[in-house]
Amino acid sequence: MDWSKVELMNSKSPLALPSIWLMLAVVFGGGTMGTMLRYAAGQVCPIIQTDPWVAVLVVNLIATFFAAWVGRKYLLLSSERFVDVVDPFLKKNPLFNLFFVTGCMGGLSTFSSLSQELCEQFTRGDFLQFALNLGLSLILGIIVGALGLRLGQASR
Fold it and tell me: Are 66 and 148 contacting, i.e. CB atoms less than 8 angstroms apart?
């Protein structure tokens, strides 16, 4: 398949995609910014400095909300399918979405830190904190993601 142009359903003309090198550079730039935001949040926000797992939870929830909101807001197709949210090629502005959603919010959030925190809590036998961390991460993540999707759909 020729990925330089992608035909979209309900679209009168094909969407011309930028080069792979430009897309990678845009994601890299967004990821760098997201990582810097994560570091800055840890330096200035007292609640994040109290406990490492709280920091991971807070930044992951923020990133989930904004990625869902912006991802849904800039969809070309008005489908309600979740898969559309994560496909940058179905966006009104693929480079913006690659920069902000994939790069910046991807750099701000972190699954590896969540996994590390959960493993450490479980290993040291802190099962209450483990359950609280896992439960809050999953439940609140789904809630803020759904809120972001709804807000993005409503603001289109």
Answer: yes
pLDDT band at 52 (very low <50, low <70, confident <90, very high): confident
Beta bridge partners of 95: none
Element holding 133 (H helix, E strand): helix 127-154
Q: How many domains does the chain have?
A: 1
Taking the CB of residue 28, how many other CB atoms lie within 10 A of it?
A: 14
Any domain includes 11: no
Q: Write the pLDDT tens digit of every residue in 95-123.
A: 888 899 889 999 999 888 899 999 999 99
Q: Are 66 and 105 spatial neighbours (Cβ–Cβ below 8 Å)?
A: yes
- Phi/psi at 6 (nearest 5 deg)? -120, 125
22: containing domain? 18-154
Q: Which two tokens stand for residue 38?
A: 């994560």
Does residue 10 form part of some domain?
A: no
